[in-house]
Amino acid sequence: MLISHLFVHHKTPGPRFAPGLFIGLIAAFSLLGQTKPVFALAGLGTTLIAGGTLIELNRRRIWDDYLKSFRKAKGVRGLWAKPNKMYYTVNVVFLWPFIIFLGVVCLWASYVLSYN
After folding, report:
1. CB neighbour class for 45 (10 Å; exposed up to 12, middle 13-18, buried from 19)
2. What is the pLDDT, as a whole number, of residue 8?
3. Domain span at residue 88?
4. pLDDT tens digit string along 28-66?
5. 29 part of a folded domain
6. Among 2-6, 49-53, 68-72, which range has the highest average pLDDT?
7. Which of 116, 106, 103 is nearest to 55 (CA)?
8. Phi/psi at 101 (nearest 5 deg)?
9. Non-local CB neighbours of 47 within 8 Å, separated by 6+ positions
10. I need a surface site. Which of 2, 22, 39, 84 has the fewest CB within 10 A?
11. In the prediction, which pLDDT does 39 show?
12. Higher pLDDT, 66 or 26
């Protein structure tokens, strides 16, 4: 019985702190922008690029997990909570690449401000 437990691989849960950390970093760097704009723009740009890239790289897993959790949640039915492939496509093709673009713009702006 003890040896058989060595070969059992349990599925590791996904990170639950990532959305809060993303929002927290954006809020922190936005508030820091009042005193140190170059540092805030660099941090905000890096956060936006890293967050957008992680979403784009894990888009298939995110969609599959959302479909699975929607099937399990019986009480959350409605038009806005229902998985819709069109909303998923708009997010993956337009929204998150735009967020990555805003991150690049923030890094460029911090570079320009640091030399002026």
Report:
1. buried
2. 67
3. 23-71+78-114
4. 999 998 899 999 999 999 999 999 999 999 899 888 888
5. yes
6. 49-53
7. 103
8. -60, -40
9. 22, 25, 26, 29, 103
10. 2
11. 93
12. 26
| Domain-located, residue 40 | yes
Residues 6+ apart with CB under 8 A from 100: 48, 49, 52, 53, 56
pTM for this model (two decimals): 0.77
Residue showing tokens 């060595």: 6
Determine the distance from the C-alpha atom of residue 91 to the mean position of all C-alpha atoms in its chain, rounded to a whole number.
11
* 3-state SS track over 89-114: HHHHHHHHHHHHHHHHHHHHHHHHHH
Confidence of residue 67 (pLDDT cuts 50, 70, 90): confident
Residue 41, in any domain of the structure: yes
Residue with tokens 């298939």: 60
User: Quick check: is 17 in a domain?
Assistant: no
Domain tally, the chain: 1
Q: What are the tokens at 63?
A: 């969609």
Q: How far apart are CA 43 and CA 26, in angstroms?
A: 8
